[in-house]
Amino acid sequence: MLTSALTHRVRVLAAPGHRHDEILTPAALDFVGRLAGAFGDRRRDVLKERRRLALRLASGSPLDFPLVTSAVRADPSWRVAPPAPGLTDRRVEITGPPERRMAVNALNSGARVWMADFEDATSPTWENVIGGQLNLLDAIGRRIDFVTPEGREYRLGDPARLATVMVRPRGWHLDEEHLEYDGRPVPAALVDFGLYFFHCAQRQIDAGRGPYFYLPKLENRHEARLWNDIFVLAQDLLGIPRGTVRATVLIETVTAAFEMEEILHELREHSAGLNAGRWDYLFSLIKTFGHRADFLLPDRAKVTMTAPFLRAYTELLVRTCHRRGAHAIGGMAAHVPGKDPAANEAALAKVRLDKEREAEDGFDGSWVAHPGLVPVCREVFDGVLVGRPHQLDRTRDDVDVTPADLLSVRRISGPPTPEGVRTDIAVALRYFAAWLRGQGAVALYGLMEDAATAEIARAQIWQWLRHRVIDRETVLRLLDEEVAALGAEYPWAPVDDIRALFERTALAGELPLFFTPDAYTRHLVRRTEAGA
Ligand SMILES: CC(=O)SCCNC(=O)CCNC(=O)[C@H](O)C(C)(C)COP(=O)(O)OP(=O)(O)OC[C@H]1O[C@@H](n2cnc3c(N)ncnc32)[C@H](O)[C@@H]1OP(=O)(O)O
Ligand SMILES: O=CC(=O)O
Ligand SMILES: [Mg+2]
Questions:
Q1: pLDDT tens readout for residues 135-180
Q2: pLDDT in the model for residue 530
Q3: What is the mean pLDDT of residues 410-426?
Q4: Which residue, of 34, 276, 291, 515, is most buried by count of CB atoms within 10 Å of its CB?
Q5: What's 416-531's CATH class?
Q6: pLDDT of 222-263, one tens digit each?
Q7: What value does the mean pLDDT take over residues 328-332?
Q8: Cα-to-centroid distance, 452 and ligand 3 (Å)
Q9: What residue spans of 141-277 are helical by DSSP H?
Q10: What phi and psi, each to the nearest 5 degrees, are found at residue 494?
């Protein structure tokens, strides 16, 4: 067991909340401090390397499969670890923030996996961060039942049918300002990973599962190596055998799509495959190549997964995974069920089509954003898997993807429509309003919106302005109208802050890398010495 020798170097800079002491124990803080001490510098290097690479690509360096790792790709002999308990059959995975009611609903939903999300679906208020950890602790201890003020009861169902928990920590770009190690904010990824691992890893093993993770927004193999080293140290510190952790990496940046094999290879003893994180992938394309006219995207609604460059990415993902014995997990169709029966039917039909394409392409399962979508995803995968838990045997040797295929965006280019411009502004503003209020995922106009889709919305406006396919006056006029509509619809919303956030992140000369660090620092941080 750990000593608390480092505890004095870790400081909590937040007022104590209800039951926070169960999570922020001296031993847990000590553990997070050890991770921060061991990996803080490497995380800083990761961020520097991201900026260097972005500059190289912006100045015209070609993006290609790395020459230096060609031997890893050419070597047919290596495989990732076999699926861990609870992760063999992943035909339906539900995602959502680790909020209490949603946690119970997700675990009972009939999905095989629940991805408890501190990233795209969570607004990282301190309350959400620590409350999420408490909910996970209670969920793993099977004591997450609760009753609403109206008397509606939420309880876990049949233990044999509960979803396996996988936790997605925040990405490397975010700090946790309420926790300091040696006077600096702790990387948010290490807080989310560390607290969950410390409290729940052994409990999960005792329950016949394990500490499982989803890793967001990686840009290259070095970041995968960093995570692997974190897993090794975390397991060693708690006396958990190496290879117990499993992690599915989201391939949701364009540079990572060129290093899928390498990412699996770096993590191979801890790998649980790859996931096609389509929304951040599109955002990454805009961010990485936003300066190039041949990467101009049309309205978001017109960019579908049948676009050739997106098919190239998803098919390469399946092929790469299955060559290495790893699960390939599909992404999120954004349509969510609604109250109107006709709209609901249309949404279900769209999700069905999306899942059918994934299942036929060889994916082993896929994501849904809502319990109402579990049956449709399950039916589609049941139909393709026919009794098997996955389709790892479909090696997709027919797939041959070149760098040009991955980057052939111009084939779907086209000017934005006035509705497309307005929708992006409306969605970004409404999402920012929810996020600043502590809600990281919302349904807007029939679609699930989260941090990744909001990033696309504001980045598209930036890209269209940059290439002068829309003019600034039009955008400012629409912004005035949409801010007024927002104020009327959400009287509680701080419209001036929201507008300013939009202006900083969509109308600036240079595209800010993410909207979240800026919005977090200005609006979500509530540091206090009282909690130190
Ligand atoms: C790009 C990406 O990264 S995708 C992954 C990240 N994004 C996500 O995970 C989004 C997850 N989805 C959600 O958060 C929600 O579905 C939303 C916000 C889009 C819509 O939520 P709501 O407006 O509450 O939907 P709705 O009213 O139809 O919900 C009906 C019930 O289903 C529950 N529910 C909805 N979505 C989920 C979910 N993902 N997990 C668990 N329960 C859910 C609601 O809590 C509600 O439960 P109740 O009847 O007990 O009150
Ligand atoms: O995290 C998933 C995505 O699509 O982004
Ligand atoms: Mg994402």
A1: 999 999 999 988 999 999 999 999 999 999 999 999 999 999 999 9
A2: 45
A3: 89
A4: 276
A5: mainly alpha
A6: 999 999 999 999 999 999 999 999 999 999 999 999 999 999
A7: 98
A8: 5
A9: 188-206, 221-238, 254-257, 260-266
A10: -80, 80
Q: Both tokens of residue 93? A: 């995975």
Interstrand relation of 146-147 and 153-154 (parallel, antiparallel or unpaired):
antiparallel
Q: Is there an atom of ligand 1 within 6 Å of 369 CB? A: yes
Q: Where are the domains of the chain?
A: 7-404, 416-531
Residues 6+ apart with CB under 8 A from 262: 66, 69, 72, 73, 220, 221, 224
Residues found in the chain: 532
* CA–CA–CA angle 108, 201, 86 (5° rounding): 45
DSSP state of 83: P
- Token pair of 106 as six digits: 């997700």
- How far apart, in whole angstroms, are the C-alpha atoms of residue 120 and residue 193? 15
Q: Please give the distance, rounded to the nearest whole angstrom, from the Cα atom of residue 487 to the centre of ligand 2.
A: 29
Q: Is the pTM of this model over 0.95?
A: yes
pLDDT at residue 412 above 80? Answer: no
φ/ψ of 499, rounded to 5, equals -60, -45
Assigned superfamily of 7-404:
Malate synthase, domain 3 (3.20.20.360)
Residues having C-beta closer than 5 Å to ion ligand 3: 120, 252, 277, 280, 452
